[in-house]
């Protein structure tokens, strides 16, 4: 269950970071409220996962899921640049997340 909580925490990190972008510096109410709600939910789920999983693994996987998700949404929703170096960087993050999952006995 800890891995499921951690995965959901990472997904919710993507939600709140995207909502934060849409809040335009917290000047728009609804995206600002979505940011706060999903930020809290993400951190609570991360904390629950950390009861079982190691700190380094939990935090790195959480950030990795958030980074990869934010990258994908940045490219698809916000027209951010997609070039070979950025793709390689994201693939390296993905590989790191997978390796941490494989290396963690839980």
UniProtKB/TrEMBL annotation:
Chain ranges passing through the membrane: 27-49, 61-79, 85-103
UniProt-recorded name of the protein: Guanidinium exporter
GO annotations of cellular component type: plasma membrane
Compartments, record wording: Cell membrane
UniProt GO molecular function: transmembrane transporter activity
Main location: membrane
Species of origin: Rahnella contaminans
One BP term from GO: xenobiotic detoxification by transmembrane export across the plasma membrane
Keyword Thylakoid found: no
Keyword Transmembrane helix: yes
Keywords noted in UniProt: Cell inner membrane, Cell membrane, Membrane, Transmembrane, Transmembrane helix, Transport
Family: Belongs to the drug/metabolite transporter (DMT) superfamily. Small multidrug resistance (SMR) (TC 2.A.7.1) family. Gdx/SugE subfamily.
Alphabetical list of InterPro entries matching this protein: EmrE-like, Small_drug/metabolite_transptr, Small_multidrug_res
Membrane topology: Multi-pass membrane protein
Source species, domain of life: Bacteria
């Amino acid at each position: 269950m800890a891995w499921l909580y951690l995965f959901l925490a990472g997904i919710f990190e993507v939600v709140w970071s995207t909502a934060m972008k849409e809040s335009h510096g917290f000047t728009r109410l609804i995206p600002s409220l979505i940011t706060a709600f999903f930020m809290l939910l993400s951190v609570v789920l991360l904390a629950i996962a950390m009861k079982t999983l190691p700190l380094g693994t939990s935090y790195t996987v959480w950030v990795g899921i958030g980074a990869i998700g934010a990258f994908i949404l940045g490219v698809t929703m916000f027209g951010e640049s997609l070039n070979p170096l950025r793709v390689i960087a994201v693939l390296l993050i993905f590989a790191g997340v997978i390796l941490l999952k494989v290396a963690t006995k839980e």
